[in-house]
Amino acid sequence: MTAECCGYPISIFFIVVNEFCERFSYYGMRAVLVLYFRYFLLWDDDLATSIYHAFVALCYLTPILGAIIADSWLGKFKTIIYLSIVYAIGQVTMAISTIHDITDANRDGTPDNFTFHIALSMLGLILIALGTGGIKPCVAAFGGDQFQEHQSRQLNTFFSVFYLCINAGSLLSTLITPVLRAQECGIHTQQQCYPLAFGVPAVLMVISLVVFIAGSGMYVKTDPEGNIMWSVCKCIGFAIKNRFRHRSSSYPKREHWMDWANEKYDKLLIAQIKMVLKVLFLYIPLPMFWTLFDQKGSRWTLQATTMSGDFVSILISTVNPILILTLVPIMDRLIFPLIQKCGLNFSPLKRMTVGMLFAAMAFVSAALVQIEIDKTLPNFPSSSESQLKVVNTYSTTLNVTISPNEHLLIESFGVQLHTSKHTYSTISCMFVNDFSLIHGEQWCEFSRKFGFGASYTFLIPSTVFSDDCESITEVEDMKPNSVHMALQIPQYFLITTGEVMFSVTGLQFSYSQAPKNMKSVLQAGWLCTNAVGNIIVLIVAELGKLPKQWAEYLLFASLLVAVSIIFSIMAYFYTYIDPAEIEAQVRKEQGLEPEEMEKETLEMEEKDEDQKNEQGVKQTKI
Ligand SMILES: N[C@@H](CC(=O)O)C(=O)NCC(=O)O
């Protein structure tokens, strides 16, 4: 019997605090990672973005490794501890790799040996990906293991609270670590403080580990049952081979193709594999949701850069966790109970379908915003056009004729300021409020707000300093961004509502439909849908360039609607199961472990019928 508080096992307190600290560590490090690549390692945008995406994809591929280790070898508890140690070492390695003084022998403020910093940071990132991905399927499943049969309502609430902790950690760290980076620190020279920005997440990871270990005495720990993954693969392989051997129509058909493993494998294992395969089959369309969802970090952020509003990047990266923190309680406490009161069965798979439709609507909203933005963007010359700018400083209007077949020779001008030889300069700046021209003791100052996205040309006559600053003419080549970024709020609201319906429910569903010894494996399968979704984004971004961004948004929205229709059909034919009951039935048929079975039957009878309805559970025999 585990210690309880308000109907919840006390041990889950340690698990949710552990998750909060771990997610703080992960998202905090991620918030400054691209900046570190760009401004510390001095990589270009493309390399920085590619390595960043490769790292994120790796983080969602390693869960399968963690699940195999947990379910087959070490058990969830030990796997979480060992991989958290690897994770913390990775974070510390990463933080050390950002100390510029280590290789700054000439003390000029920049590292002298970039290879050292690159090698150390790559090692750190690999360890972090192994750690964060490895523990990810185990922590949620381990949290679920703490609940007993009669606590199914509390179990659902746990998954929501778990998701809240993820987003609280993400929100705080996304706000804090960029501020830490902006501080100055160093031994020989003062530079932007990357060691602090990466060091604080490393400390949080150590705290996360300590909190998890502190709860040791209270956890329900289930032992791994041998190398389950290997047995599963062998059993599936045998069923396929056996089916092929008996392909002639003279052999009687079997109810399920996995029944062709009956000759050699335990009925219980076959029943468990059937449960897992049914859920994995249902996962096939799911990556499409993540394909859209993960574009909020790329396409939508880029969209925001063409809109007006200050502090865009900080606000944008926190909109999602802020909305999650508000929407999860509203959904759990208000919307879902209300739907249930109306007598509607809003089962997990229906919620996930509706979640997908919300994500599709978010992309329609993004397309509408894009159409508004496009109206305000300047027309850039296409690959078959040139653009001429004629600045007429003559005292009267001139006619310009352009001969269509004439070839233009475009000269490039020097771009250095403060030298009299150069006549033309281009400066791109952020937050320009003051702009001064200085010539010896004389100066002209322009003090006003220059809009984001705008481009200005200042025509300076040769007489300016003998005449006066008024003779300078300012031309607005490109208008400032005028579509306000507040217009993005509906799309963020829609995608986050979709996330709550899809992701939180998917997490619960993956746990509830998995046999006891394969819970982490199914969590890993669930996380893999995210990795595949990210890979689709990379492929589509590379291959399918549509001429108009809004058209691409609509294409993604239509694809997700099509996928959600397919998913709803698959979901219609899916029968919710209670894995424990099926396992007990199989054991009964095998005449095994009577005492154990009696206990399970008793527990099942005690189950609250209402709680079953809430989950839309229909008992069935596989
Ligand atoms: N909403 C995201 C967090 C974020 O993007 O800030 C989320 O909950 N992700 C799930 C996770 O496990 O990190």
UniProtKB/TrEMBL annotation:
One of its GO terms (cellular component) is apical plasma membrane. Pfam families: PTR2. It comes from the Eukaryota. This is Solute carrier family 15 member 1a. It is a multi-pass membrane protein. InterPro entries: MFS_trans_sf, POT_fam, PTR2_symporter_CS. The chain crosses the membrane at residues 54-74, 80-102, 114-135, 155-181, 193-215, 275-293, 313-331, 352-371, 489-509, 521-541, 553-577. It comes from Cyprinus carpio carpio. Residues 599-615 have a biased composition (Basic and acidic residues). The keyword Transport applies. One of its GO terms (molecular function) is symporter activity.
